Amino acid sequence: MRWRCGSDTSRVSDYDDIKKQSGRFGGLHQRIHETFQRRSESPAAWAAWEQACRDFHSYESPMRFIESADGRRRLREGDPALVEHAIAFLELDPYVFRSGYAKAAIIRCIKRLSFTHAQIQRLQGVVLRALDKCDRQEFRAYCRLAAAVDSPAFDARIRERLTSPDSAVRRQARYVLDYMDDCRRSCRAG
Questions:
Q1: At what angle do helices 167-189 and 139-148 cross, to 10 degrees?
Q2: What mean pLDDT is predicted for residues 120-133?
Q3: Mean pLDDT of the 59-64 span
Q4: Separation of alpha carbons 147 and 149, rounded Å
Q5: Is the pLDDT of residue 6 over 70?
Q6: Does 125 reside within a domain?
Q7: Which of 64, 84, 133, 141 is 20 to 30 A removed from 47 (C-alpha atoms)?
Q8: Are 182 and 93 contained in the same domain?
Q9: DSSP per-residue codes, 82-131
Q10: What is residue 1's predicted lDDT score, i.e. its pLDDT?
Q11: Residue 95 has what pLDDT?
Q12: Are residues 141 and 99 in the same domain?
């Protein structure tokens, strides 16, 4: 993966790279499941399953930038290219093996950074999209991200979801608002 920062053109490249790698990664993971079902049928089927496992484990994951200690350190330090890539990853929200853990790790690393206005808006969009989806294991991380990009307009957009016909969206919106309120109180007290 090439690390780029700056222009909208580089963002499009990041999106394309992440989509391509996530699709390939997801396909390799799916192939393990498919070959697993048939592995006991013959020695060739067993070999196909073993090869699928080798292919999956040797593939360079689209989350590799956050899987290394150096990548997490650079992200916490605010490396502009890596931050841009991380935001693009969160925006695309790939749903592949271990992507939830990667998203939570990204959020842990970036939540204390200073963002540009455009980055704040993009991250607010990430949180709003997470609210509108079903629960995933990384949802608590999105609550932490919401507190990091808080604004009155953002708060209002979350409150709009309190009247959603979907009870899960209402519950998640309440959870995010409660988390943000707790953060605001602790900031005022400390």
A1: 50
A2: 95
A3: 67
A4: 6
A5: no
A6: no
A7: 64
A8: no
A9: HHHHHHHHHHH---STTHHHHHHHHHHHHTTS---HHHHHHHHHHHHHHH
A10: 32
A11: 74
A12: no
User: 31-45, pLDDT tens digit by residue?
Assistant: 888 999 999 999 999
Residue 28 has pLDDT above 90, yes or no: no
Distance CA 45, CA 167 (A): 45
Please tell me whether residues 93 and 164 are part of one structural domain. Answer: no
Question: Is residue 41 located within the same domain as residue 74?
Answer: yes
Are residue 42 and residue 105 in the same domain, yes or no?
A: yes
Confidence of residue 61 (pLDDT cuts 50, 70, 90): low
Residue 32's contacts (CB-CB under 8 Å, 6 or more residues apart) are 49, 52, 53, 56
**Domain range enclosing 50:** 1-113
7 with 87, same domain: the answer is yes
- Is residue 148 located within the same domain as residue 65? no
> What is the pLDDT, as a whole number, of residue 2?
32
CA distances from 185 to 67, 81, 180, 190 (A): 33, 33, 9, 9
What is the mean pLDDT of the segment spanning 167-173? 95
* Overall number of domains in the chain: 2
56: left (phi over 0), alpha (psi -120 to 50) or beta: alpha
Residues 6+ apart with CB under 8 A from 14: 4, 84, 85, 88, 89
Q: What distance lies between CA 102 and its chain's CA centroid?
A: 6
